Amino acid sequence: MKPFILVLFLLGSVLLSPAQTKAISSIPIPCSLVLKLVNHSYTNGMGVALVYKVKLTPSFPRTSISIHALHLPAPSSLGDYDRFEGFAFIPDEINWRFKLYPSPEEDAPTWAGRFDSITAELENVHIQVRLSNSKTEKLGPVILTNHINYCK
């Protein structure tokens, strides 16, 4: 009986060890992710996403994604759009959409925004900056993008 208990203990410690648990988890949080241009004709465009846990209420922590995007073309120069939005999604499961607000710089403002209420595990998440029309709520094409696996 003692060898059986020893085997169970060893098996349990290997399967449930902290190192194993960490290896199974999706990404290390906090982390940041460079968002890259889809269309390279907008030469200077670039962005970054910051992903981290926030505790804004007494309930359990949520995940926050914030985006900071620079040197993007004016939304109206790319069609019937008047702003940019942050868009993060797990394919065929869920998506999060949030407004990016321009800074007061006249020539190529910085666009920034955040979403603080994510409860899902961030596995296979794509993070993007997309064009948007505020009147029709139509989401346009992707301008900047990257996959959460590149978050460091």
The mean pLDDT is: 86
Low-confidence spans: pLDDT under 50, at least 5 residues?
4-11, 13-25
Q: What is the strand tally?
A: 8
What fold name stands as the CATH topology?
Immunoglobulin-like
CATH C-level class = Mainly Beta
Strand content: 35-45%
The main β sheet shows up as:
8 strands, antiparallel, barrel
Count of domain modules:
1
Total helical elements: 2
Return Rg in Å.
Answer: 20 Å
- The main sheet orders its strands as 1-2-3-6-5-4-7-8
CATH level-two architecture: Sandwich
Instruction: List the secondary-structure elements in sequence, H or E.
Output: HHEEEEEEEE
Cα end-to-end separation:
47 Å
The level of helicity is: 10-25%
What structural class do you assign from the helix and strand content?
mainly beta
Topology overview:
Blueprint: H1 2-15, H2 18-24, E1 31-37, E2 46-54, E3 62-70, E4 83-90, E5 94-102, E6 111-118, E7 126-132, E8 139-147
Antiparallel strand pairs: 1-2, 1-8, 2-3, 3-6, 4-5, 4-7, 5-6, 7-8
Quickly list its features.
Immunoglobulin-like; globular; single chain; mainly beta; 152 residues; 8 strands; 14% helix
